[in-house]
Every structure is written in C-alpha cells, then in structure tokens.
Amino acid sequence: MTWLDQLPDCVDDLRRAGEFQQGGRSAEALPIYDKVLEVTTDPLTRAYALVQRFGSLINLGRVAEFATAMTLASNAVHETSDPYLRGQMHAFAALGAHLQSALDRGVTHLVQASRALAAVPDGDSHTAWGWHDLAMAYSYLGFHGHALTAIEQARQVGAAAGMAQELFAAPGIRLRNAVALDHQGDTDGCLRVLRDIDAELTRYVASGVDTRLRPSSRPVYGYALARRAALGENTETDIGDLFTSGGDSVRSRELRHLGGVCLDIAADRPADALRKLDAVPVSQEILGPAEPARLRSICHAAAGDHEAAHKADRYAFRLAAQRIDRLRDGYLDGVAARLDAQETQRDAGRYGDETLTDPLTGLPNRRQLERYVAAMLARGERAAIGVCDLIGFSAVNARHGRHCGDLVLQRIAGVLNRVMRRGDFVARFAGDEFVVVLPGAGPTQAAEVSRRISAAAAGENWQVLVPGTPIGLAAGWSEVGANTRSLGAALAAAAAHRTPA
Known about the structure:
- This protein is an alpha+beta fold.
- It has helices spanning 11-22, 26-39, 43-60, 66-80, 83-99, 103-118, 125-140, 144-160, 171-183, 187-207, 217-230, 239-242, 250-266, 270-279, 290-303, 306-351, 366-378, 393-400, 402-419, 443-459, 462-465, 487-496; strands at residues 383-391, 425-430, 433-439, 472-480, 499-500.
- 67% of the residues lie in helices and 7% in strands.
- α13 packs parallel to α15.
C-alpha cells in the first residue's frame, strides 16, 4: 500500500501523472493535475495534486507561476497536517526558491522539509521520492554533504518499499559537487569526482541495470562525461547517446546544450564552443553561475588565448566566491535569529502572556516596538527610526481581495527583514505601516538602509502576485532619543517626511 491508496478519489489519474513526472514528462502531467483539481472535493487529494503540480512547474522552469502555485500548495497542505505532504511541499519550495535566487528562503524550506519527512511514521515510495527531491534541493543550494545524507535516506526508505537502488543514483549531486570544486580552483578534485561518476555508469551498463535509471539521470551522466572530456580525459562511453533522453525539464535541456559545448572543446573546436555559449544563454541555477564562465575559460585556453582564459577564469572564481559569501551571511543571520529568539523568550517570561507579535507577518507588533524603544531610551541610547507605508496597497485590496493584500504584507515583511542590518528592529505598526529602528544610526546610515529597502522592494516580482497593480514603499526618517524626543514625536516627524523609498 502506498500513500496514494489512502485517497478517496482520482487515484488512477494521480498515479499516471506521477509516472509522467518521474519519467521527465512534466508537461503531460500538468493537465492531469489541473483536471483532478477541477473535480475533487477531498482536502487531502487536493493538497497532493497542488504539491505535485508545483513540482511540475519547477521541472518546466515556469518561474513566473511559482509564487501563486506555492501559496496554493502551502495553504492546502497546512489544512491537512500530513507530514509527507508538508515535507514534499517544502522540498519543492526550496527548489523553487533556488530558481528565484532566494537563498535565505530556500534554506528555511530545506530545514522544514527535513523535519517533516523525518516525522513520517511509515515511509513508502512517495516518502522515498520526497527524500530524493530534498537531496536535489540541498545539492542545488550548495549543501553537498547534506544532499548525500538525504539521498542515502531515500535509498533506505526506497529499499524498504521494494524500489530499485538505481532509481536513486542521483548523479546530479556529485556532478554539482564536481563543478563547484572546479570553480574554486580544485580541478584535480573535480576530475576525481567525474571519474567516479563515469565508473558508476560503466558498472550499471555492465550489469544491465542502466535501463532502470531515471530518464532525467541520463543527461546528467552525459554532462559529467562531456565535462571530463573537456578537461582532457577520454571516456569509453558514447556520450552523445546519453543526451537523447531526459524529458522536458529545463535542467535536461541546458545540460544538453552545455554538454555540446564540452564536446566541441574535447574535439578541438573552441570557436564552435564559444559560439554556442554566446548563442544560447543558460540559467545560473542548474550548475551554478560560474559554470558558463569556466567553460569560456577552457575554450579560450584551448584556442591559445591565455589572457582571455585568465580573465574568464577570474570571473568564474569571483562568481563562485559570491555564493560562498551568501552562505556565510546566511550562517551569521541564523546565529543572530537564534539570539533574537532567546531574547524574545526572555521577554515573554518578563511580560507574561501579552501578545507581542503580529500574527500575519510574524514581526513584532506595536506593543513590542514601544517596549523596545522604551528600554533603549532608558539606557540613554539613540536611534534612527523610519516609517514605511505601502504605495498601491488600497488598489491591491480593491482589485485582488484581502487575501492577496495579506500576501503582499507578508512579502514586504520579508523584504524588510532581509535588508536590515544585524541588530536592527522591524515591526508592523498598523495596517500597511511598518516601523524600522536602527540603533546608534544617524542620517547617513538611514539613507543607506532606505536605498536598500527601495532596491529590494523594486526587485520583487509583484506582477505575478498582484498582476497590474504596482507596489512601492514610501519612507520617512527621524531620530528617537535625540533632544529627548519620544517615540510618538519621532514617528510623527518621520511620517511627515515620507517620500517614495
């Protein structure tokens, strides 16, 4: 018995759509999920179909539809409290966040997915695939060690359910590890991993189990071997044959394209390889933003243009280093969040059962803001204080309804949290009004934070969330603690000087 067998309707349709999806045919799975959603009235069936539909959109790279699909799936899953569905949804959400270049959101979903899947009491084939998708998400976001742990969990759960181990070969995990090593200057380490991938495929072919590999795994093996050939090592396997399958996912398409670049390099056709790189742009999410630059460096080196090769190599290294910096910042933010949580727990004990958090956004509310500023003033400290209002919020509620308005407020809360400096304080004051407090800051720091808020808000894809309704922020700044100015006076002064952020 599998997880699907507990559903009261549409089981055959959902099973067929799942087979399409696992076979790399997400475009064929998508209309089946839409059909199920039109006819089912069962909450569990609806939640499952919405989660898997979200996964199909991720496979197809339809980024513009992620936000809406994620919201629908998340709301449906939270109504069921099923740990498998929660884990699968968060695994897909982590992949979606990666494709949207939202590393902080992706890491949060990784943790939530791992905890939910670990809570599944009796794993089956669906749970195994949930662990597999979580392993892929770990790998794409750069957590290669965690990815290997998750894929081993997938193998164990899958074996208990009678599934072939080859289904969980997951060569993409090691491939991304290999190219990451090369991007950081460890080409020897990269080649060692690529040789291991080649040897594994050779074993599968020799034992006749290669036919049980997932279709999406074949172009990954193909790229690993082509990448090895581009670095000057030959392989006995017919690489071109591996690129003939793989389904309709954006990942498979881009691996075929970049694989062709590698094969041109191996065949001493660097000019052809460079033309392919110039002709078809690839996303930064499949093998990391540094991979096209690194291939360009190898092309120039093969053509004898060592100055251009060095320039491209330095650019690739800089892109790889930026990713490491983002991970390091995420670690520091995590420590800061843990310290803030500990402080909040101490405050909760001090203030009893009074509510200090806005339930919609999770931010501190007006009461907590007032107590925070009062404690700061009692210590003789000063701060810059900003009042931020949403531009276009009334139009959102009028055109799209209160639910979309709530989603906009949650998104703005996330924007403000991301751009604040460590130690800054953000609260939802009332309605669409937010207040930020920058301890020890003056006009210069406030102007810089205001610029970051403006850039972050402008960078959000509001068109997907509330089509046709522009969203912006107006911000005004003042000081609290200066000249014994109170919180109320500072807020009034800031509100009087609001301008578009």
